[in-house]
Design goal:
By secondary structure, this protein is of the alpha+beta class. It is 24% helix and 23% strand. Keywords: Hydrolase, Magnesium, Manganese, Metal-binding.
């Protein structure tokens, strides 16, 4: 790992963030954040735009290799990956026909690591949206298991960053008692997240900071949720074990104040040495 592009840097930094509409975020500070970040790879979710809708500063900014995976439903979902390291290949979707063009998953295969951007459906109890979320989870878990096995056989690591839309434990949201029947904290969703961990993926933030509470990554725009830090931790960087062992730092880049937010989520940035 002597240099880049073409190989991984000695210290690799990766960020994940739900931008809550890339064009809207760009007007509030995302472009400046992207230019200033030390991350080598940035995974974005809820982009909500076709590449043709984006200015060059977002579609193909200087110094970045980019893959955009928009949703066939215009103005919804969408994930992107920005990488300062040239990818060997890219993949959009994970082979499940229902979700291939839903703008919820994309991969970049870098020299030693596969980095993915995931936007898991948010769900809504008692509605078709929750059914969709459950179908997605059921289809996605086998793919994660397969991806890990194939990567390890090839001597590679895997890092799936994204908005997983599940708070795994009580320490992952402020008002957990009031949300026990809410999508994102349902027992079956939390159990499913546990199966991802059982499959060998490591929540690198919890590995370094096992106690909690938080730090949270999403706060509602309603009321004083941000000011009172009444949030949810639903944005994760999930790594295969070898890469997780190399993680030295995970930081939630929480805005200094409500008016300086460019999304209702904060970037989560991990450093791997």
């Amino acid at each position: 790992m002597s240099g880049w592009p073409g190989s991984l840097p000695r210290v690799l930094k990766v960020s994940t963030v739900n931008v809550n509409g890339l064009r809207a975020a760009a007007k509030k500070g995302f472009v400046e954040w992207l230019a200033a970040t030390e991350s080598h790879v940035v995974a974005c979710q809820e982009v909500r735009a076709e590449e043709s809708d984006l200015p060059v500063s977002l579609a193909r900014p200087d110094g970045w290799h980019v893959v955009h995976a928009p949703s066939a439903a215009k103005g919804r979902s969408g994930v992107s990956l920005y990488s300062r390291i040239e990818p060997e290949s890219v993949r959009i979707g994970f082979g499940e026909p229902e979700f291939e063009d839903s703008g919820r998953y994309a991969e970049m295969h870098l020299p030693e690591v596969i980095v993915a951007s995931l936007y898991l459906p948010s769900g809504d109890v008692g509605t078709p949206r929750q059914d969709e979320k459950e179908r997605f989870m059921a289809a996605f878990l086998p793919y994660l298991e397969e991806l890990k096995a194939k990567a390890e056989a090839a001597g590679k690591h895997v890092l799936v960053g994204g908005d997983w839309n599940i708070a795994h434990a009580e320490i992952d949201l402020k008002n957990w008692r009031a949300n026990r029947k809410s999508s994102g904290f349902l027992p079956e969703e939390r159990a499913w997240f546990g199966t991802v961990l059982d499959a060998g993926y490591v929540d690198v933030q919890r590995k370094l900071f096992p106690e909690g509470p938080g730090p949270y990554t999403w706060w509602s725009y309603r009321g004083k949720a941000f000011d009172n830090d009444t949030g949810w931790r639903i944005d994760y960087l999930m790594a295969t074990p070898g890469l997780a062992e190399a993680c030295t730092s995970v930081v939630v880049e929480r805005a200094e104040s409500y008016d300086k937010r460019w999304s209702d989520h904060a970037p989560v940035t991990a450093t791997f040495a």
